[in-house]
Each structure stands twice: as structure tokens, then as C-alpha cells.
Amino acid sequence: MASSTISCNASDLIPLLSGGANATAAAAAAEFICSRFETVSGKFTDAGYAIDNTYLLFSAYLVFSMQLGFAMLCAGSVRAKNTMNIMLTNVIDAAAGGLFYYLFGFAFAYGAPSNGFIGKHFFGMSDFPKPTFDYPFFLYQWTFAIAAAGITSGSIAERTQFVAYLIYSSFLTGLVYPIVSHWFWSSDGWASPARSDNLLFQSGVIDFAGSGVVHMVGGIAGLWGALIEGPRIGRFEQRSKPLTLRGHSATLVVLGTFLLWFGWYGFNPGSFAIIFKSYGTSPGSSFYGQWSAVGRTAVTTTLAGCTAALTTLFGKRLIDGYWNVTDVCNGLLGGFAAITSGCSVVEPWAAVICGFIAAWVLMGFNKLADKLRFDDPLEAAQLHGGCGAWGIIFTGLFADKTYVSEIYGGDPNRPFGLFMGGGGRLLAAHLVQIVVIVGWVSVTMGTLFFVLHKMELLRIPSEDEVAGMDPTSHGGLAYMYTEEEIKNGIMVTGVGGEDDHVHGHVGVL
């Protein structure tokens, strides 16, 4: 991780120290100076490793805090009668994901077959630490794996058996996601931009922090889960217009959104893995280095999210006639999901374009979902799958030549963004990535959900769905209600009609 040390040769110092004096004394002085220099140089090398590993460890903590954001966002987006269920699934995503990623996932993601990865990485990390792999790296990659699983849980909320969550989360974090991350992030992955040779379209795929690897994987998995088990009861029973089954707490939605926003500063800038690296030609002479790229990545991430939020705000006002906080929160997250691929290799002005289009991609996919009677309580498939795919295309169009060269090195003439004058090879590689991820996740997760459906392990019985998963599967409700509140109806379960923001159908839980 750290930069290489500078060597000291005593023979080079002797002529400078002798000056006609005793040669033996000069040689002794040269040896003394070099020994002290090597000690100090070694300390700087140690400090470099410490700085890089501390940076990566702190980034892992930030990304892990996104699990709390997912939990709050999911809890606020479902009805009160399903709160305990969705909170428990978020805990299980992290717990099951941690164990299965340790046992199997990391080996599939970063083990090299030529190095005997089965013996070295399955069931543990026997060759840790080493210069390129240390424990913070594993922890950081685990947080990404459970993020993908958390995305999927939102798509199938409010009608899925808990055992199905256990099975799909373990399978996703132990096999499906790690294989994709190996293809595009491992140094020997067939489409990785870090390969030493045989780059896909001479560029590889620049999916820096995972618009495809994380967001599309989670979104496409959720798409198949929601398609196979069908919409929630009451969602499309009206012929004229779909019934909106509103979540019970906009407060939790906003809280979750801000927590995810905070965590994204570990998700995107943290994906550099190292920060102690200068881009200057001579050590100590440059103020510009990886730390600058980290800062720029945080800026592009921020601008994409902010632009998407404001675009959604005014777009939904024009379409629906009112200001909707939950739509704005989803738009913001859609901008983040889109910029995640190219956050490190695009200019800040390009991030604004990314966020603007991401908002319309999300709104368009939501309209399409309603027409196709597709029910995703958190819009996870549309947001992470749709905006993630747009982010991959965006990077193929706007990746900057200088930034690509600084971050990925190798051939200075490697392809970059089509609109930046770099030709279409990077875009072609990214289109391949989209097709491959859709195909792989469809075959694996689609098959898994179909088998669970056939075994009657996927969807809960209709009477349990109407009553709520908390009282039927988790021992009681998440909140305490008085008898009077229950008698009079404590929440709006659905709204419909032309003025769906005004009129509602009141029901108990």
C-alpha cells in the first residue's frame, strides 16, 4: 500500500565525506548515516501502511453505518404492522452476510486460482496480513457485500417469509455478489481495469465503487424476487390507478436517507483503499496526490445526489402537483447510486449531469413499474438497478483521460469517456458489464427465488399479510397502541383516486 523506500548507498557518500581526510573514518561515517537513513525511511514506510489502513478502516466504518440508514429507510417505507420484520431482515443481512462472506465470499471475490485460493481463503484468511491484503480490506469488502443484500430486502418487503430472507441473503453474499466483484474488481478479473494485460476493449470496466457490482446486483436480485412473488395485497386491485400503500413514517425515511448520505462518503471516496500516494514526479514536491482525488470524489458524489434530489423535487411537483419528501429522498439516493461508478474519474460538472438524468431515470422506471403492475415497496429495483445501469453508461461517456491515467495507470493512451474524446471502447466494455450482471444475477437469484416459490418458502399466507408480519411472525407489534387507537384505525394503509394525496382509506395496521 505504501510507496517504496528510497535507498542509501554508503559508497556514494564516501567521496562526499572524505575530502582528503581519513578514508576509514569517512567510510564509517557513511555507514552510520545510511543506517540512520534506512531506519527513518523504514519508519516512513510503516507510517504509510498505517495511514492507508486507518483510512480504509475508517471508510469501512462509514459504509457499515449505511446499514443503519437502510434499516431506518426500510422501516419508514413499510406499514407499521411490518416494522419489526423489516428491521430484523436488516440485522440478518449484516450477520449472515458477515459469516458467509468470511467462509466463502471473500475467496470467490479476491482469491486467485493460480495462487491456490481455495486453501488460502476459504474458511478464513490464513495469509493475512500482507502488503496488498490486510484485515481492513476484508472488513471494507464485507460492508459492500451486505449493502447489496440490503438493497434486495427492500424490493420484497411486507410479504416475504423470514426463512427466504435467510436463504437469499446467505446465497447473495456468499456466491452471487462475490463472483461479480471478482470479475470487475480483482486484479485478475476478466473485465477488471487493474489487469496487467488483456484488458477488455483495452480499458476494462471502470466501476469504481459499484454502480454495477453493488447496486445493479442488489437491484436485479430484488427485481426477480418481487416479480416472482407478485405485488402486495391491495396494490393493484383498482383498475383505474394503482393503490399507494404508504409507509408509516416519513421521519424514519428522512433519517435513513441522511445516514446513507453520510455513509456514502466511505462508499465512494473510501474505494481508493489508499490515500498516502502522490501524483507528483518527485516525492515531497507535490501538493497533488490521491488525497486530492479522494476529495474530488466526495465532491462529485455530493453534486450528483444534490442535483438528483432537486430534479426529483420539481419533477414530481410538475407530474403529481405536490412536494413529496419520500420521492426526493429516493431521487437523492438514485443520484448517489448513479455516480458511484464514475465518481473518481469525472469532473464535478459532469456529476451534475449524472444526477439530473438519474432522477428522470428513476421517475421513468417508477411509471413503467406501475403500468406493468410491478410492486417494489422501496423502489429498490428501479433505483439501484435502473440508476446503477445509467451510472455505468455515464462513466463510459464522461470519464476524464487524466483521472483515468492517474488512478488506473498502465497505458497512458487507454480508452476514456466517449464524450471526452476517448472513443467508444470504454463505453462498449460498460455495456458488456450491464449485460453480464443482468444475466448472472437473473440466472442465480432468479432461479433461487423461483425454487423458493415452488417450495412455498417465499411468500407468506394472505391472511398473515393482511394482519401484518409483526403480530403473525415476530411476536407482536413494534409500537405500543391504545385500544382506542386500534379501534379507530391508526394509520392510512392506502390512498387512491385522482387526488391520492388527499383522500385515503383508513384501516387498522
UniProtKB/TrEMBL annotation:
Ranges that cross the membrane: 55-78, 99-118, 138-156, 163-185, 205-228, 249-267, 349-369, 427-452
Domain of life where this protein originates: Eukaryota
Primary site of residence: membrane
Gene3D superfamilies in the record: Ammonium transporter AmtB like domains
Positions of the Ammonium transporter AmtB-like domain: 55-479
InterPro entries in the record: Ammonium/urea_transptr (IPR029020), Ammonium_transpt (IPR001905), Ammonium_transpt_CS (IPR018047), NH4_transpt_AmtB-like_dom (IPR024041)
Places the protein is found: Cell membrane; Membrane
Topological relation to the membrane, as annotated: Multi-pass membrane protein
Keywords attached to this entry: Ammonia transport, Membrane, Transmembrane, Transmembrane helix, Transport
UniProt cross-references to NCBIfam families, sorted A to Z: amt
Similarity comment: family membership: Belongs to the ammonia transporter channel (TC 1.A.11.2) family.
Protein name: Ammonium transporter
Lineage: Eukaryota, Viridiplantae, Streptophyta, Embryophyta, Tracheophyta
